[in-house]
């Protein structure tokens, strides 16, 4: 365990409760989280552990639930905005990368989505083409039901290995309560649960065809998405048939489906280039808030609130964040 001059009484109590953990010496105190998030913002957490072994990850998840220790599971740090004041909890970074490739592919939740696509595509298995260019890990993708181009990861899920009520068990996809960019684990007040691994059903296909489809999707992303630090798409798209019907320039398929991209509304409201401190609405894609250097989490959240208000005043629509605000916010 790393040495610090002082720590909170709560953290000391948590460490005492974790004294039986097999890898206690690698738990750190007051770890800054900005280095672990794609937005490059975030203050310190009380305790921090980086899990690379699935057995130890599950063991620790069981312990923190038994001890009722406030905790947060961190993947690759995309799709979240951590407060400048940090997280008053035990942050467990999931870097577990176990993988068994097949038509039923079993993968640890710490595995990067892009790497998973590459491994399965090389094996001639289709289903994850949409994951090209999606930042983050499998666990984060499950929590937010990640997807793109009308595909979602929930459509592939067969089973999930989860620690709930301090027990390791296997559940079906219905347990997650999947919805558009949502699951039960995004909701405040949900019982603590840690996703350990998942089994995804993929389809055999010609490797050349798989990579061609993925390349087409990747080219669309490259042409639109910014290069600066971001959390990915900041707001969820809007499902509103009446609004979709009256917007000019919306593609016919989206108009019929009643889907209005958040980036369309933000761009139409003149939000591109808007700035708060070091946080800027990207000029390449209005649904990306980027850190141009020196941005704080407060800069990012304040800018998000400003553009949400502008969309509300012009279209009477409340944008909902896809990005999750984590930590000690006022």
Could you explain the architecture of this structure?
The chain is α+β, with helices and mostly antiparallel strands. The protein has 3 domains: 9-94, Uridine Diphospho-n-acetylenolpyruvylglucosamine Reductase, domain 2; 99-207, Uridine Diphospho-n-acetylenolpyruvylglucosamine Reductase, domain 3 (2-Layer Sandwich); 226-326, UDP-N-acetylenolpyruvoylglucosamine reductase, C-terminal domain (Uridine Diphospho-n-acetylenolpyruvylglucosamine Reductase, domain 1), CATH 3.90.78.10. The chain contains 9 helices and 21 strands. It has helices at 9-17, 54-66, 113-122, 138-143, 207-224, 241-246, 252-257, 262-268, 297-315; strands at 28-32, 44-51, 71-74, 80-82, 87-94, 99-100, 104-108, 125-126, 147-148, 151-152, 157-164, 167-171, 193-201, 203-204, 229-230, 238-239, 259-260, 275-276, 279-281, 289-291, 324-326. The strands form 7 sheets. The protein has a 5-stranded antiparallel β-sheet. The protein has a 4-stranded mixed β-sheet with strand order 1-2-5-3, with helices on one face. Strands 15-20-19-18 form a 4-stranded antiparallel β-sheet. A hairpin with a 2-residue loop joins β18 and β19. The longest helix is centred in the last third of the chain and has 19 residues, at 297-315. The protein is globular. The protein starts with 8 loop residues before the first helix and ends with a strand. Mean pLDDT is 93; it is low at 1-6.
């Amino acid at each position: 365990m790393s040495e610090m001059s002082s720590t909170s009484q709560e953290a000391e109590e948590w460490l005492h409760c974790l004294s039986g953990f097999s890898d206690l010496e690698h738990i750190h105190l007051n770890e800054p989280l900005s280095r672990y998030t794609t937005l490059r913002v975030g203050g310190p957490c009380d305790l921090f552990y980086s899990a690379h072994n699935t057995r130890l990850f599950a063991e620790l998840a069981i312990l923190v639930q038994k001890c009722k220790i406030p905790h947060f599971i961190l993947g690759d740090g995309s799709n979240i905005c951590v407060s400048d004041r940090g997280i008053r909890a035990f942050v467990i970074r999931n870097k577990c990368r176990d993988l068994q490739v097949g038509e039923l592919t079993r993968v640890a939740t710490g595995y990067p989505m892009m790497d998973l696509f590459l491994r399965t595509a090389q094996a001639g298995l289709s289903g994850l083409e949409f994951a090209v260019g999606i930042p983050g890990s499998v666990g984060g993708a499950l929590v937010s039901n990640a997807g793109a181009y009308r595909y979602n990861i929930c459509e592939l899920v067969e089973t999930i290995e989860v620690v709930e009520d301090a027990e390791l068990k296997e559940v079906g996809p219905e347990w997650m309560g999947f919805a558009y960019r949502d699951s039960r684990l995004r909701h405040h007040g949900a019982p603590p649960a840690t996703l350990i691994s998942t089994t995804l059903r993929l389809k055999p296909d010609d490797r050349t065809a798989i990579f061609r489809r993925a390349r087409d999707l990747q080219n669309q992303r490259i042409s639109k998405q910014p290069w600066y630090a971001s959390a990915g798409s900041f707001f969820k798209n809007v499902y509103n048939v009446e609004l979709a019907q009256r917007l000019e320039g919306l593609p016919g398929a989206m108009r019929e489906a009643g889907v209005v991209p958040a980036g369309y509304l933000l761009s139409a409201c003149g939000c591109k280039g808007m700035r708060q401190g070091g946080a800027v609405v990207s000029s390449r894609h209005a649904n990306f808030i980027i850190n141009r250097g020196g941005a704080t989490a407060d800069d990012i959240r304040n800018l998000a609130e400003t553009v949400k208000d502008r969309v509300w005043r012009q279209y009477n629509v409340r944008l909902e964040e896809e990005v999750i605000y984590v930590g000690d916010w006022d």
